[in-house]
Amino acid sequence: MIRYALVCDHDHEFEGWFGASADFDDQLARGLLECPMCASKAVRKQIMAPAVAGTKRTTPDAPPQMRTMVMEAMRKVRAHVEENFDYVGDAFAAEARAIHEGRSEDRGIYGEASPAEVRKLVEDGVPIAPLPPEPPKKTDVN
Q1: Residue 88: Cβ within 10 Å count
Q2: d(CA 36, CA 19)
Q3: Phi, psi of 89 (to 5 degrees)
Q4: Which of 4, 49, 81, 92 has its CA 20 to 30 A from that of 107?
């Protein structure tokens, strides 16, 4: 997975994760990218420094309203996938590969895959992305 720092035309900064560098260009051209804060589709990459591991925290926590906005966007993504894509369970890796190779109907799917299966799909250029986690139930939160 490749992580890009992105910004919209209203200067809202956010990140995007892509299976390959060409996926950003493809999704941008198809109008699939939008700012999670204002829904602007005028999105571009920012200049990024390489990630370097360290022990000191150099970035402040995101403001609470930003976290709330991101959590809501993730909830909407998950709900959209669950409502519009086919659930294939633990056959996900095999079905994603079959769709990629043209042996199965081209459609949106979701399901489960082991880390090894995910790694192999990514290595083979099969376009996949992790589904945002389910939000905690209100009864499970303090």
Answers
A1: 19
A2: 19
A3: 60, -140
A4: 4
Place of tokens 């399901």: 111
Report the 10 Å Cβ neighbour count for 6.
20
Would the pTM of this model clear 0.85, i.e. be above it? no
Distances, alpha carbon 112 to alpha carbons 1, 37, 96, 131, 137, in Å: 17, 29, 11, 10, 21
In this structure, the strands spanning 109-111 and 86-89 are parallel
CA distance 3 to 104: 29
Q: pLDDT confidence of 39, banded at 50, 70, 90?
A: confident
Distance, C-alpha 2 to centroid of its chain: 10
Q: How far apart are CA 134 and CA 62, in angstroms?
A: 21
Q: Kindly tell me if the per-residue pLDDT of 52 is higher than 70.
A: no
In sequence order, which residues have a C-beta less than 8 Å from that of residue 113 and are 6 or more positions away? 90, 92, 93, 96, 121
